[in-house]
Amino acid sequence: MKEIRYAKVNGESIPVVISDETEALLAAKADGRAIIGLAGMDGNPAEFALERLEDADEEILERAARRHLGLPWTICVTKRLIIREIFADDYEAIWENQVGTGFGTIEKLEAYTKNQYRFYGFGFWALIKQDSRELVGVAGLTIPRDWSGEGSWFSLKLPPPEDQEEPFEDALELGYHLFLPWRRMGYAREACLAILEYGRLQLGVSNYTAWIRKGNLASEKFAESLGFVREGNGGP
């Protein structure tokens, strides 16, 4: 079975090949087309696998096309923000605001976005003001890390989704960094609440941690306002 659907990306129609045949998908990929495989096939070369053809809705088609074109996904939308994946055009603003050491060069940022999102399906995301399209910060979810220096771990337990058959016991770490001009406007809270709900409903994760350096009382109070509780000091 092979079928071609079309995704809308920035006003353009992008063909997406859906098939349960490995050779058909490999041929489409070699021809420079976005591809989606169906579950159960051997050697699926596509990043996306659907149970049924009927599951290929507009969102899935657009995400497959965006991944194929190297364009960022929109994770979720809040009252004032668009939360989307980071991509190369964000580098200058991120570098100017010193967001971590992992984005020291544009090549490192591109490697991060290429590997992190594709492998895990989550990571740090860009926070974009809806009205001005300005990048105001980053926030997201990561595998808990071994932190150096003095600090404290905070934890949060959310109720699992109603349709989740088996609980996902591992925790993800919540991180956030608002650029200086945009602090104390509620953007961090708006973004983090949306990200936690996205993690709960879309990733099936109910357990979260946050690591805060010693003396950062503002971050401690912020984490507690989200429902986090202090667990202990030092690394994991």
From TrEMBL:
On the tree of life, the source organism's domain of life is Bacteria
Return the Pfam families for the record: Acetyltransf_3
Single GO molecular function = acyltransferase activity, transferring groups other than amino-acyl groups
Annotated ranges, domain N-acetyltransferase? 81-236
Q: Which InterPro entries does this UniProt record tie to the protein?
A: Acyl_CoA_acyltransferase (IPR016181), GNAT_dom (IPR000182), N-acetyltransferase (IPR051531)
The record ties this protein, via PANTHER family, to: GNAT FAMILY, PUTATIVE (AFU_ORTHOLOGUE AFUA_3G00765)-RELATED-RELATED, N-ACETYLTRANSFERASE DOMAIN-CONTAINING PROTEIN
What this protein is called in its record is GNAT family N-acetyltransferase
Origin species: Candidatus Copromonas faecavium
